[in-house]
Amino acid sequence: MRHVTISVCTAALLLLPLASCAGLRGDGIGPVRAPGGSRAASTDESAAGTVEASAPVGASATEATAPAPQDDAFVESAPLGFDAASPLPARPSVDPTVDLSESTLWTDPAFRRRLVESYVAVSEVEPPLFGSETEKWGQLVELLYTQRMEEAEKFANKQRGPAASAAFDFVVGNLHFQRDELDEAEADFLVAIEKYPNFRRAWSGLAQIYARRNDYANTVRAFTKVIEMGGGDALTYGLVGVAYTKLQEYVAAESAFRTASMLDPDSVGWKVGLGEALTRQRRFGEAIALYDSLIRDQPGEPKFWLAQAMALVRSTRTDEAVENLEMVDALGGSTPQSLALLGDIYTTSGLYDLAADAYVRAIDANPVAEVESALRQVAGLAQRNANVPAKKVLDHVEEVYAGLLEIPDRKEILRLEARVAMALGDPDGHVTKLQEIIDLDPSDGGALILMGDHYARTEEPERAAFYYERAADLDGFEAEAKLHHGQMLVRARDYAAALPLVKRAAQLDERDFVQRLLEQVERSVRD
Prior knowledge:
This protein is mainly alpha-helical. It is built from 27 helices and no strands.
């Protein structure tokens, strides 16, 4: 949460609804609506005394001497219990040539009187103040106004109690929320709601706590209460849309994002959310058309190209998705995930060199990421016999992650390198990599079997048998090791020696081809 820059705004922030104070695009605290329904005036941010919210009594910097027309929007975002229909004291005068931070407005008696009187609760969604609580409330506002936050919290806590107004519980909750003390804020908001179940701002604060915890089911439940009580603004509907998306309730998410976009048509965030909801419903044409309009308005924004690329991929329009993903990269918006996706599409399309380039860029985009994804990409290339591109990616992995790999990842790289070396006709390189694996982990049965296969191919049966027997002694590798050992003997027509090995393999491995091999060996021995 962004801090306001003058003290009165801090007071207003603590007393206004949390949701209405947040920027509609999630980028901080937006201006509080002034009594006339327009955004509160602000000076240049570089000037001393920048104003980011109106004073809680609703005095406008640009229209201070004449009463402004009231509207429903102001009732929603007004401080606690402000009645837009009630008569107001005369507005204090404001010198428009003086920065607001230097204005006498803040010490004007009329302003101070309005400040206190405006917090008398009369709305059905605000708790009332009882008896002397109105005076206590004024004292609390004074502490907040002068930024004496610790004193304000102590004072508000003293006013709390089973019979006290829920307004004090809410203010303490807001103070906790500002300090990211979410557990304490939740407890305070729940107390306020228990006292006054229709306390809309407390429900809104509670919803935002749940949203920050990624508790999306409770986020929806709390924001629904806010909406039921007439508090449905663009931010509320937008956050409900996000929560429904996380809950995979895409029809509800679509409805929420459409309402948010209607209430705030300038916010592109809700439109992107709508596009995602449409894509998840497999309504790809609508989603792609929506992204087209966003790209047309802001062609230099990579996130729109990327979002549309995801919809194009899901609709199997991969050629167009490639164009989008390359545009994302050209605009500097690529992520490791988008580059990996680009590489996957190139791999599927048989464009292996381009795929390797994309995978290398994905590694460079996030060199501290886990190496598993890069190894999966190499395996995909190797499975398609794209061994030169696979070696290019492997070499880059070795370069980037040298000295940083755990033994399991190091073994997997060596295994892939051994496979690629064999495919490229480099048996010496193949054996060297396998031996490195065995040196790292003498109990790697897979590497021992591959080493045995190598010596079986080079017609060195004794060395081959040595590695097969080592592997057969390891848990989980006996069946495979005895099968390979038996196959080597079958090729040498030593059926009698092969029979016990193949028979044991068939006992452990019920695959059809193993059973058929056993039958053939038994028949050969009988003949």
